[in-house]
Amino acid sequence: MKTSDFDYDLPLERIAQTPLEPRHASRLLVLQRDKPELEHTTFWQVADYLKPGDLLVINQTRVIPARVFAQKLTGGKVELLLLRRLDLTTWEALVGGKKVRAGTRLTLVGGPSAEISGELDGPRRLVRFSEPVESYLAAAGQMPLPPYIHERLDDPERYQTVYARENGSAAAPTAGLHFTPELMAHLEIRGIEFARVTLHVGLDTFAPVTEDDPLEHEIHTEWCELSAETAAQINRVKASGGRIIAVGTTSVRTLESAARTARTGEAVGIYSGPTDLFILPGYPFTVVDAMITNFHLPKSTLLMLVSAFAGRERILDTYAEAVRLNYRFFSFGDAMIIL
After folding, report:
1. First-last CA distance in the chain
2. Per-residue model confidence as pLDDT tens digits over 282-299
3. Does residue 320 carry a pLDDT above 80?
């Protein structure tokens, strides 16, 4: 297995720059693993592929406006993308700027001062602020859109799911962007349940696999939580024959991480803490029966995850067909359901 095995050609015009309105108007590609044919519909019609008693597991993380701008005392400009809070005033961050080394002192535009307190690999740094920075982010921070999106986003809430609750992500769990309150109510009327988990999306959203062998790639940890209430709901649905359908790769990682704490007779246990689960082809899924997901970047850990679930060749053939049929790719793009 090589990283190049997960590459594909994508014309730049297929990368969605703006979200659709309404959210559920996006296209939906249906891949059923036991059938060779693909189906094409709209996301509103996802109900046609779900059954009463199925459980959709959604990630309730909320993106923080974590992109901020600062200046060095020498006058040089610095851009910070805050990834993860480590204590009251210290964050792990991606740093853009020249010679931003440990000991470099910064001043945020219209905000507190800060110091680079440690150097990690690549552009990652530890940043210690002079005071808690959350109120400053709420007032002056910018939404951290992925680097392949070049259009201005007028409404920052369009980069949040409608069910986002828990602040902490550096990027949105984009499979959930297709849901609207109307669609969720429509699904619940049809006997389909929702369960909430939390995974705060971090560095790997921005870090491609650069090693020739993906097994040599160090996936960075992300914090996730699956509560006792959600665990009981999942175990009940599993025991009664319903399907567990993960909305997004972040929900997949949370569910499969929680499987590690399951007791005899359970599908998942309670889980709260960091996960470094890296899902590659050959991984034995124990919880997830189906997934809803967007179209992912070439050579990414997320493309490797969906390949583990549906087969690498099947996924790459499906992506080629999606390109041919003008599907919209990546964060603001269309969706697929893998059954």
Report:
1. 25
2. 999 999 999 999 999 999
3. yes
**Same domain (yes/no): 34, 113:** no
Q: Quote the pTM value.
A: 0.95
Q: Which domain holds residue 130?
A: 67-140
Residue from 204, 80, 96 nearest 144 by CA: 80
> Dihedrals φ, ψ of 207, to 5°?
-110, 105
- Residue 43 placed within a domain: yes
99: helix, strand or coil: coil
Q: How far apart are CA 257 and CA 4, in angstroms?
A: 27
Angle, helices 312-324 vs 301-310, to 10°: value is 110
The phi and psi torsions of 183 (rounded to 5 degrees) equal: -65, -40
For 299, left (φ over 0), alpha (ψ -120 to 50), or beta? left
DSSP state of 301: H
> Please, how many CA atoms are within 13 Å of residue 23, restricted to the half-sphere of its CB?
19
The residue type of 27 is R
Residue carrying structure tokens 């939580």: 225
Distance of CA 108 to the CA centre of its chain: 28
Tokens of 242: 């319903």
Counted residue by residue, the chain has a size of 339
